[in-house]
Structure to design on (389 residues):
């Protein structure tokens, strides 16, 4: 079930004053200047779409539906809304309204949806490939009975360019002597992409399968290195399953922060000027702002400089909401804007803690002719660890 029901959705779209404050902070609108894809424009169109949807004989053109997928679901518009509308949940719920009423979602996303329903990963990879990242790691201390489940996520499992995330996170867990386990080839998607598309029925099936696995493992903590997985487990599962999952769920940045508190990590100097990009699903959605900053402060030699737009005001990397799947050029253009901010503060390392953010920022670096390198926090922490004697 979505967080906003149809009645709340209908109320919200008439509360909107059409003032346009939200358009001013919307990255997709700033790039393509389509009023119909802006937050204000989408809300205006919703009024019509709901009326048309109630009279099934009147169809809604596919490109109008598509406008709702030209949205990063970043939630920046929510922060400035003059009438306190939860625009983020409104746009998520409206995608669900389209899917429930059988309006076709953009073709590229339909492809992902089909894969998620068959092999439980968006790109349609063979399930066995999910644990390829584990192959060249020797002497792993993966335990049958563990306290901590490390949930790797699809983005970091299947794509070679992202497997540095689980490989490095395992290094951190081993360094800190954590009793951990991974699901391996049997891990399935967390359901976040199905939720982004608005397919709550598929998300529910996925969540039920995951719940069964978590219960069998009996772990007390689940750690996710992907902001999207962390959001799905903590924010969305309670709504779609109508219950909270038993183990506590932490994002890797929060867990590393706990390991710091327990004095389990020792760092060497990593001299350089660093800044931090708040991933939308970790920052604005889950309000996790301090742990990554605290970790950076604890690494000797790190000179931290805050971006002009940070925390609740941070700009999206450009890949959110499925936008990278339907318009890669738009996603990369938005990411190029992030590098302008980075240049302004003179940082040479752009740290984030979401593999999708790093992936998109990496794509944009060349086009932006940026001097700064995108780095994942996990990668940096693993590199900074002082090896045991
Ligand atoms: S969620 Fe982000 S991309 Fe979507 S309308 Fe709001 S500001 Fe624009
Ligand atoms: S800021 Fe809020 S009230 Fe104003 S147009 Fe945007 S959604 Fe509507």
């Amino acid at each position: 079930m979505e967080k906003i029901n149809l009645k709340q959705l209908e109320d919200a779209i008439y509360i909107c004053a059409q003032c346009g404050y939200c358009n001013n902070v919307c990255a997709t609108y700033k790039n393509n200047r389509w009023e119909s894809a802006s937050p204000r424009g989408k809300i205006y169109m919703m009024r019509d779409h709901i009326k048309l949807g109630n009279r099934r004989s009147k169809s809604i053109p596919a490109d109008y539906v598509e406008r709702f997928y030209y949205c990063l679901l970043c939630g920046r518009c929510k922060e400035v809304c003059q009438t306190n509308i939860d625009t983020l949940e409104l746009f998520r719920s409206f995608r669900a309204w389209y899917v429930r009423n059988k309006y076709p979602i953009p073709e590229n996303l339909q492809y992902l949806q089909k894969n998620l329903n068959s092999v439980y990963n968006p790109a349609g990879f063979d399930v066995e490939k999910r644990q390829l990242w584990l192959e060249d790691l020797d002497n792993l201390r993966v335990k049958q009975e563990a306290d901590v489940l490390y949930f790797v996520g699809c983005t970091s499992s299947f794509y070679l360019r992202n497997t540095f995330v689980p490989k490095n996170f395992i290094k951190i867990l081993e360094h800190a002597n954590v009793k951990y386990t991974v699901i391996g080839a049997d891990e399935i998607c967390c359901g976040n992409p199905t939720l982004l598309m608005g397919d709550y029925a598929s998300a529910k099936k996925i969540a039920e399968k995951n719940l069964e696995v978590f219960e069998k493992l009996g772990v007390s903590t689940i750690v996710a290195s992907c902001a999207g997985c962390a959001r799905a487990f903590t924010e969305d599962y309670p709504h779609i399953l109508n219950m909270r999952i038993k183990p506590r769920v932490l994002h890797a940045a929060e867990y590393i922060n706990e390991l710091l508190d327990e004095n389990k990590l020792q760092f060497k100097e990593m001299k350089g000027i660093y800044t931090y990009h708040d991933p939308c699903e970790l920052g604005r959605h889950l309000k996790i702002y301090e742990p990554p900053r605290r970790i950076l402060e604890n690494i000797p030699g790190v000179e931290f400089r805050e971006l002009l737009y940070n925390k609740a005001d941070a700009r999206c990397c450009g890949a959110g909401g499925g936008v990278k799947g339907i318009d890669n050029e738009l996603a990369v253009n938005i990411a190029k804007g992030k590098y302008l901010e980075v240049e302004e503060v003179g940082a040479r390392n752009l740290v984030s803690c979401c593999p999708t953010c790093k992936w998109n920022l990496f794509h944009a670096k060349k086009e932006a002719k940026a001097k700064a390198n995108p780095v994942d926090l996990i990668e940096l922490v693993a590199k900074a660890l002082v090896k045991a004697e």
Summary: The chain has a mean pLDDT of 94. The pocket of iron/sulfur cluster (ligand 2) is lined by residues 16-22, 39-40, 43, 80-83, 85, 87 (CB under 6 Å). Strands lie at 148-151, 180-181, 221-224, 248-251, 272-276, 302-304, 349-352, 373-376. Residues 6-104 form a domain with the Fumarate Reductase Iron-sulfur Protein; Chain B, domain 2 fold (CATH 1.10.1060.10).
